[in-house]
Amino acid sequence: MTITERIDNITRIPPEFLHAKPPAPKSVKIEISPRCNYRCGFCALRTREVQPKWDMDFALFKRITREMREAGVEEVGMFYLGESFMNPRLLVDCITYAKKELGFPYVFLTSNASMAFPEALEACMKAGLDSLKWSVNAADEEQFEEVMGVAGRLFHRALANVHSAWEIRAAGGYKTGLYASSIRYDGEQQKKMETLLREKVLPYVDQHYWLPLYSMGAFATQREEQLGYRPTAGNQGRIGALREPLPCWSAFTEGHVTAEGNLSACCFDATTNWTMGNLNKVSFMEAWNSDSFTKLRAAHLKRDVRGTVCENCIAYG
Q1: CA 308, CA 216: separation in Å to the nearest integer?
Q2: Which terminal residue of the chain has fewer beta carbons within 10 Å of its beta carbon, N or C?
Q3: pLDDT tens digits, residue range 170-210?
Q4: CA separation, residue 218 to residues 51, 119, 271, 288 (Å)
Q5: What is the pLDDT of residues 231-286, one digit of tens each?
Q6: How many whole angstroms separate alpha carbon 97 and alpha carbon 104?
Q7: Prior bond of 15 cis (ω within 30°)
Q8: Phi/psi class of residue 14: alpha, beta or left (left: φ > 0; alpha: ψ in -120 to 50)?
């Protein structure tokens, strides 16, 4: 199955999940580390008043992933909003536990690539990582510094690591799928992106796909407007298989857990506004079908989220 087929299977809400209390999600993303070395102008992490300096407790990770597996979760992502390679030791431990102890059929990861050094890359592949996707959203060093808000040398380091991953997989005979995604721009900027991808990325991945700029949980700033972006309503999935904003698949078919252990209803919740349960206090399924989550899903099913935490996000439509 290709990565886009997997994505589409999650963003397409099947009939049995169109309920205020659906079954366990097939996929869950877990924030191994909420930290990130980028300062992207469009990212939900910029809404945090104080950037975190902690990572997920491994004991918490083990308990909640066991609960997820027993409930029927099949795919687990080793990331949510942060950059998981900020703590490569913890990342490898989590992949190993999910694959070898719990037997998750599919363990995946998204990264900006700048911290994905060869030693950590090979350790992740050896641990059984099924899918590694790179986020490539700048066409050159100048745009990288403007959009990602960090030194241009990281632009070149990230591309070098993308290349290294391809070589490491081939040399070691690992099964990890290598992919990339990019935000689709307009006009001349899009042409620059296509040139970069053709020369520096496409030769080193199995598949690439395009994404719209999401509203990131209603996060649209003057900086985004200056950069020429306009968010879409909600999270409509990938370009080529966009979904309607309501009901939002993110609340029905995929779980999202922060490093602190909060289960969120939103795939871009950097401020805990969408917290539906604290997994330090309740089980995964108790939080998944909590009263607050049930009420929010009911509003989504009615296609009327006025008065809910999702109101502003959908307003982009």
Answers
A1: 16
A2: N
A3: 999 999 999 999 988 878 888 999 999 999 999 999 999 99
A4: 19, 38, 11, 22
A5: 445 566 676 667 778 899 999 999 999 999 999 999 888 778 899 999 999 999 99
A6: 9
A7: no
A8: beta
Residue positions counted in the chain? 317
Q: Which two tokens stand for residue 3?
A: 């990565």
Alpha carbon 185 to its chain centroid, in Å, reads 20
Inter-residue long-range contacts of 44-48, CB under 8 Å, 24+ positions, other chains counted? 44/81, 44/216, 44/217, 44/219, 44/268, 44/269, 44/270, 45/81, 45/82, 45/270, 46/219, 46/221, 46/270, 47/216, 47/217, 47/219, 47/270, 47/271, 48/270, 48/271
> Residue 138: exposed, middle, or buried by beta-carbon count in 10 A (0-12, 13-18, 19+)?
buried
Average pLDDT over residues 110-119: 98
pLDDT band at 75 (very low <50, low <70, confident <90, very high): very high
- Report residue 279 as tokens: 């997994």
For 188-209, letters b (16+ CB in 10 Å) and e give: ebeeebeebbeebbeebbeebb
C-alpha 34/C-alpha 90 separation (Å) is 13
Residue 214 pLDDT? 54
pTM of the model: 0.90
Question: How far is Cα 223 from Cα 47, in angstroms, rounded to an integer?
Answer: 13
Q: How far is CA 87 from CA 25, 79, 93, 94, in A?
A: 26, 11, 10, 11
Cβ-based neighbour number of residue 231 at 10 Å: 18
